[in-house]
Write a structure and sequence with these properties.
homodimer; about 260 residues; alpha/beta; Spore Coat Polysaccharide Biosynthesis Protein SpsA, Chain A; 2 domains; seven-stranded mixed beta sheet; three-stranded antiparallel beta sheet; 9 helices; elongated; transmembrane (chains A, B); transferase (chains A, B); membrane (chains A, B); Nucleotide-diphossugar_trans (chains A, B)
Chain lengths: ~260, ~260
């Protein structure tokens, strides 16, 4: 069985293959890891499927399904990230039995040291995240072994756990005890309200990353880049019998929205 | 002995620890790899030293030395990246005997598949790089097994190899046969002129990445981010006896310019 489900939302964009290649090269080093990749697209990308097969990581590749029930969302409401996370949570509750679940963005950084700690999550675990908006660090505040607050504090309720989206994990068992609990598009702060509904409190969250003194997760962002354009290949002359058509195909095919 | 020297220029900036952690998690999977990290700083960063030790990658961590001879550079001329690459080349010529040398930026992506191919470099090897400026792909053009040009072509000479900085490797032996050859600050296109001085021609470059049909290297860029500020920690109250001082110290100490 798997001890860690890593959920990664993705969407077709120029650096996607680069970001996913790099992330897969970290995840492949973690034992008993299962990767749930959820794509904001109606059909799967051939390149992403190849990348997943090649990575040898156990995985499920989900794509956006129009017929997927979007809880509490007004008609026509567009909330791609929430949609993808709901889809992942639904899949995990239906298919998994043990282990823990964490969210990892494709262009973020996770130190390998964290995964082994996260696997030990009994209910809800929390750790610091670096380079977050607005103040650069998101973390529980620990004093004499107890959680006394959050930095920065919640804007909704002083009793909440306003963890960053990449700063917490929940156990599969806890999710299965609350099968209706997910991310709602009506939520002001979806992560925080999700954790609240699962019963997270200052006195029951488990602290990771050396008792929250180390940064093992960073919210880096890959700069937006342009798609290579086939027109540039054609400009220079006839490249029909060269490596260029294959190269452009490998980069572009099925990776555009 | 080592079969691959990876040179990475770095400088103090907010996502540095994140970028280097992620890159180290790729490089640690490559056998017989030696990492030459060259820092645009006068003294080494404690955090970077810890990261390197922890990665278990064999390495040398060089910092900018004021007394380092800056070939052909007018006095006061500032060319940090060239300076760092010259420093790395000088160190390799003095210390290494075999293997090949490639440049990898800290926020780029290299597919693990490439390293084993690069290790086989006899003289000069070249491969495609994705997400490059201005057209998104930099590659030799191959027709019927022969190099017939470059995409995009060189602006200096149609016989040159205008490879991207991350699109080539040279053997240590070739470098030692040309001990005076390095990057010059007077060069219009330093990589291209470096390869030219080492004797790279269409008919002697070795082609990697499945005969230049696959993208195994991408020039991704991590978005610029702000430093976390200690003032934010102090705003909320007295955190002297919490985890916050250690956390801020771990992120900031020795990583500011």
């Amino acid at each position: 069985m798997y001890s860690l489900y890593v959920v990664t939302p993705t969407n077709p964009r120029p650096p996607r293959l680069a970001d996913l290649t790099r992330l897969s090269q970290t995840l492949r080093q973690v034992s008993s890891l299962y990767w749930v990749l959820v794509d904001d697209a109606e059909k799967p990308s051939v390149q992403v499927q190849q990348l997943l097969r090649h990575s040898k990581i156990e995985h499920t590749y989900l794509t956006y399904q129009k017929e997927f029930t979007d809880l509490n969302c007004p008609e026509g409401f567009r909330d791609p990230k929430g949609q993808l996370r709901r889809l992942a949570i639904q899949w995990i509750v239906e298919h998994a039995h043990n282990g823990s679940v964490m969210f990892v963005l494709e262009d973020s950084v996770v130190d390998l040291q964290l995964f082994e700690e996260v696997k030990l999550t009994k209910g809800i675990s929390v750790w610091p995240v670096g380079l977050t908006s607005p103040i650069g660090i998101s973390t529980p505040i620990i004093s004499k072994g107890y959680v006394t607050g959050f930095h920065p504090p919640s804007s909704l309720s002083s009793n909440n756990i306003p963890a960053d989206m990449m700063g917490y994990a929940v156990s599969v068992q806890l999710l299965r005890q609350h099968p209706q609990t997910t991310f709602h598009c009506s939520d002001e702060s979806p992560e925080e309200q999700f954790l609240q509904r699962l019963g997270a409190r200052f006195d029951n969250i488990e602290l990771k990353a050396q008792n929250c003194t180390e940064i093992y997760v960073w919210r880096t962002r890959t700069k937006k880049l342009k798609w290579p354009e086939k027109v540039n290949m054609l400009k220079e002359g006839n490249h029909q019998f060269t490596n260029l058509p294959t190269l452009y195909l490998n980069v572009l095919e099925n990776n555009r929205p």
